[in-house]
Specification:
Order of helices and strands: EEEHEEHEHEE
Oligomer: single chain
Strand content: 35-45%
Helix content: 10-25%
Shape: globular
Amino acid sequence: MIALIQRVESARVDVDGQTVGAIGAGLLVLVAVEPGDGEAQCTRMLERLLGYRVFSDAEGKMNLALSDTVGGLLLVSQFTLAADTRKGMRPSFTTAAPPEEGRRWFDRLVDLARVAHPGVETGRFGAHMKVHLINDGPVTFRLEVR
């Protein structure tokens, strides 16, 4: 499982002109499910999302995690993160989970997040989404869980 996390002042996802998920300060997370991902990857990814220290403490150092700040968490499925881009001029998506598997494990990650953290929002799996954000920093990291 791959996640691109962005510390944001605010973020929202629109589908067909309607906002389907929005947060204030917190993390926007683009998530890709890879073949073979399952419960263990969902659990570990959530631990990392809630515990990764990307928020500033009183001295301006990145020492606080989302669980410390109780900020928003906007999870957006994005299979293109798993693309193989090593050669050629067109990405290959054979390294991404098939849609049914991707939906199953993305939804599981969302379910686990909603139990563990307040303020969880999502995009819409499989939809053409417009993602709006104000990146804070900018602070962006790529996390992987195998």
